Amino acid sequence: MVVSSVNQEHQEILDDLDRLKIAYQIRLFSAESESWLPYFHEVSVDSHAHNQIFLARDRLRVFAGEHKSLLLSGLALSKDRTIKKITLVGEQQSFTAKINNPSPRLVAKFPDCQNSANARWKCAIELDPDLEQQNFELIITLDRDQTITYQTIELQQIKLSQQYQKFNRRINRELAEQIQSIHQSRQLMMQHISQGKNYLFAIGNARSGTTALGELLNFSDDICLGIERYSLKDNVSASSFTKTSFFDSQNKNYLVRPYFYQQIEAKFECARYIGDKRPRFVKSWRNTWLNLPNAKIVYIFRNIYDVACSYNLRANVAAEGQDRDWSSQRDFIHAVRDWNEGLEEVKLLMDFYEVYLVKYEDFFINPDKMSHLFKYLEIDPSKPDVSQGIDNIHQAALALQSKPRVLADAELQYINSNASFESYNYLLKFYEQQFQKY
Fold first, then answer.
1. What confidence tens digit (pLDDT) does each residue in 53-80 have?
2. Residue 231 C-alpha from the chain's centroid
3. CB burial string 43-70: b at 16+ within 10 A, e below
4. How many Å apart are CA 175 and CA 62, to the nearest integer?
C-alpha cells in the first residue's frame, strides 16, 4: 500500500532528511549501442534502469554504510577481449571499480566469456553533499588500452519533503517504513527523557582517548555507557537502549565484554544517561541523529602528531602478530586520513547536535576541566563516585605524560602537508569558548 499523505511528525522527519542532504535520484544515459555491442555480450548498471530514487549509503536505506559513499554495481561481460579496468569518471574525480570473475552460470551461458576474465563490477562513489548534481561516465578499458564509454550516470540531490508522493510504489513503501521507524524511536526517546533518562555518546577518532573518556564517565552512578556496544552498521535507535536490548547476552558485541556489562547493569535503572563509547560515530552520526536528535555528544580530539605516533606503534605491534584488532598497514598515513575525516564530520555534526568538546592534551591532567564536563551534564562532580573517578583518571594521565613520541622526518613532512590543521583550529576555538559558556 502506498502512503498518500504524511502527518506533521512524519513531515518533520522528511524535512530532517532534506537537511542531511542524503537523497539522490539517479538517471542513466546510454551510449549508442554500436559503440559497445561489438565488444560485449552485456553491460549494465544493476537495478538502476528506471530513474529510481536513491538514499545515499545503500540504495534504499537512509542510514547504511559510510556517509558519503554510494555503491553502484553492474555487469560487464566482454566477448573476447580482456577487461583491464572499469572507472566512473566525473568532472573533478574518478573512482576505480572492483572487478570479479564471471560466475559459472555466466560462463555456461557465454562460453567464450572465459577470455574476458572479468564480469561483475562494483564501485563506491564518494558524493559531495554540497553539489546538487554530479555526473559520472562509466568507462571500460579493454586490452591494448582501448576505452569504451558505455553510459553516463547522473546523480541529483532531491528534497524528499517535496517529492515523497511521486515515488513509485515499492520505494514509497520502503521509505514510509523507515520514516515510521524513526518516528517511533523519537517517541520512545521523548518518553525516556520525560522519565529523567537521556542518551549520551562519547566519540572521537581512534587513539584519541575515547577509552579513557568512557572510563571517566562510567565512574558516575548517573551514567551507564557501553564500550562500543553497537557497531558502525547497527541501526542505533531508542529501542537499542532499552534494558533488554542493551544487555542482550547473545549479542556479539556484548559477548566481547560480558563481565563489564554485568558490572554496569546494576546502575541501569537509576542512571540519568544511557549510551555508548563509539570512536567511529562520525561514520554513522546521521542515522543516530535521525533516531535520537536530543542525545548528548562528547567529542574528544587530539593533536595529529601523537595520533600518528600511536597508529605507528599499533601497526608495528600488529606486524609482529601481537595485535589482531589492528592492521600492520594502518600507520601514520591512515592516521592523517582518519583524523581529517573525523574533524570534518564533527564540524558538520555540530550543526545538528550540541557537542561538548574535549581536548586530550589538557583534559585528563586537569581535574577542573573533567569536573566541568560533569557540570555540563548536570552531575555534581563532588559526589564520591565522580570525584574518585576524576582522581583515578588524573593520576593515570600524569603517569603517561613521560612517554616519548617520535616521528621520522619524512613522516613529519607528510603530516604537515596533509593534515587538516584548519579544521583542528576551528574546533580549538569552540573548545576554549565552551568554558565561558557553561
1. 555 443 333 333 344 677 788 888 888 7
2. 10
3. bbbeebeeebbbbbbebebbbbbbbbbb
4. 8
- pTM for this entry: 0.85
Q: Across the beta sheet with 355-359, what order do the strands follow?
A: 223-227, 273-277, 198-204, 296-301, 355-359
Tell me the three cell numbers of residue 430.
Answer: 569552540
Cell triple for residue 330?
594502518
Task: Give me the amino acid identity at 54.
Answer: F
* Cα four-point dihedral sign 66, 70, 76, 81: negative
Write the pLDDT tens digit of every residue in 272-302: 999 999 988 888 898 899 999 999 999 999 9
